[in-house]
Amino acid sequence: MNKTGKKSWIAYLYILPMIVLSFVLVYYCIIDTVVVSFTDWDGMTDVFHFVALKNYIKMFKDHVFWTSVVNNLIFFVGTVFIQALLGFVLAVLLKKKLPGSNVFKAIYFMPIAMATSIITAIFRIIMDPTNGALNQFLRAIHLNGFAVNWLGDPKIALVSVIIVNIFQWMGFSMITYYAGLMSLPDDVYEAAKIDGAGFWRTTFSVTLPMLKGTTNVLIILGIVGSLKTFDIVKLLTGGGPGRSTTVMNTYLYEKAFKDFNAGGAASIGVAILIIAMVMSFLQVKFGKED
Amino acid sequence: MGKKKRAKSKVFTYLVLIVCAAIWILPLVIALTKSFTINGFGNYAYVLSYKKISYFKVVFNSLFIGVTTAVVVTAITALAAFAFSKMKFPGSKIIYGMILACLAVPVAAVTSPLFATIKNLKLLDTHFGVILPLIAFNAPMMLLMIKNYFDTIPDELIESARIDGATTFCIWRKFMVPLSVPMIANVLVLTFIYSWNDYLVPLLVMRSEDNYTVTLAAQYFMSSTYQSPVDVARIYAVMILLALPSILVYLVSQKFLVSGITAGAVKG
């Protein structure tokens, strides 16, 4: 169509609304973030000075920044692998299509439809060290040692944040694996059966390797998700106690709107943008291979 | 032996599924039962008649933002996907690539410039101040999903319609869109849920309680009250009420949401 080139201007009409409403704003924000990262702008007034690489030098020397990077990494690893394993096992069990499977699927997936803002509120009350339902339950079954200060202990807070994140997003891994499982040909299972492989043997040495593409996509989306992590941390712990749960986005937000250091915030933004753009590329690439 | 083994594996399967389901539904069950403690339905009455933040206004705000964003994103991405999928024009690869490069860009990474832009457009504390960034940052992912779907529609179909004298827009309206209804529904539902659940953009833009979204209202109630047992019961009632609309949307549109998320991941 339109291969004559004569009418190619029509194509521009079709992409125009998307360019105006999405492309322009997104790229303006990206470019402005890069520009601001070389200034001392406070984010509010119109006054700013060019400071060259000062924000970046400060950022690389800032141990809180590195703490936030490490926390992002821990968050990513903790979330993705537990989530993928749990999601995979549940998908395999659901694929048996026993009566009631759809109800189970709906339950596992429901937190994704709920706002993080609401889920975190519920968990903050449940995880309250003295009055929370979680610790009341643990004390009732005489596991007092496990009744810890879930969100207030710097050693445990990040784990708690990861637990809540897994609660919200496990259904995503499950449904992705489930879709992958449905696309596998049946004769593979027949062959494994003839070879005398049991259920779990088949699952882990036949099914899982065949779903490598799905796993790759989940890992990339896990990195993307970790990069986007903001509200779950801000609302559960606010990045604390101390710096134990601070991630790049909450640190950036703090710099921008508490310290009024938009320049410093932008330098963190640029670091996130660079990783994000590499991830976008990988997401599209692995998605195609799958 | 075989039968016995199969029965055993069935029991095991249900055991795992039920234990996990219990864990996954428990927080909601706790919230629901505790929301009726001390004052019973009085907790709900308290929330519904709360003066400073009107429940119905809050739900309306989120609904308005969610629906507008979803409709606009679906419309602009379905139009653009047609051009990227079925037309040849100079710069198409570069522009598409540049849009895809933004797939993983989080709003949180660009907060100061975004805030300044919304301020300069005089959109602070307005619905459109929230809607505009939500459209901008949700559209790239949705474009990818619709474009991938359009790619599966054979070119011959369009070619023959063209020979029959159909205009480009006519082809879009009478072939592309009707043939892609499942994917368009996916994109509609997914964008709605993402916009409804967003916290950061309303946090940056909205100021007055009258303009609060569901996500801001949840945090308002969370931070404004001292958490005595009565407060906890009321907060749970708030959360149940605020979660209710999105749970209803989920139950109605579950099929589309699930397949939409899968399409985004597998083909994404």
Automatic annotation (TrEMBL), chain A:
InterPro entries: ABC_transporter_permease, MetI-like, MetI-like_sf. It is a multi-pass membrane protein. It is found in: Cell membrane. Residues 69-283 form the ABC transmembrane type-1 domain. GO terms for cellular component: plasma membrane. Coiled coil: none annotated. Keywords: Cell membrane, Membrane, Sugar transport, Transmembrane, Transmembrane helix, Transport. It holds the Pfam family BPD_transp_1. Belongs to the binding-protein-dependent transport system permease family. This is ABC-type sugar transport systems, permease components.
UniProtKB/TrEMBL annotation, chain B:
Pfam families: BPD_transp_1 (PF00528). The keyword Signal does not apply. It is found in: Cell membrane. One of its GO terms (cellular component) is plasma membrane. InterPro entries: MetI-like, MetI-like_sf. Residues 59-253 form the ABC transmembrane type-1 domain. The chain crosses the membrane at residues 12-33, 53-82, 94-116, 128-146, 175-196, 233-252. Keywords: Cell membrane, Membrane, Transmembrane, Transmembrane helix, Transport. Its main location: membrane. One of its GO terms (biological process) is transmembrane transport. It comes from the Bacteria. It is a multi-pass membrane protein. PANTHER family: ABC TRANSPORTER PERMEASE PROTEIN MG189-RELATED, ABC TRANSPORTER PERMEASE PROTEIN MG189-RELATED-RELATED. Belongs to the binding-protein-dependent transport system permease family. This is ABC transmembrane type-1 domain-containing protein. It comes from Roseburia faecis. The lineage of its organism: Bacteria, Bacillati, Bacillota, Clostridia, Lachnospirales.
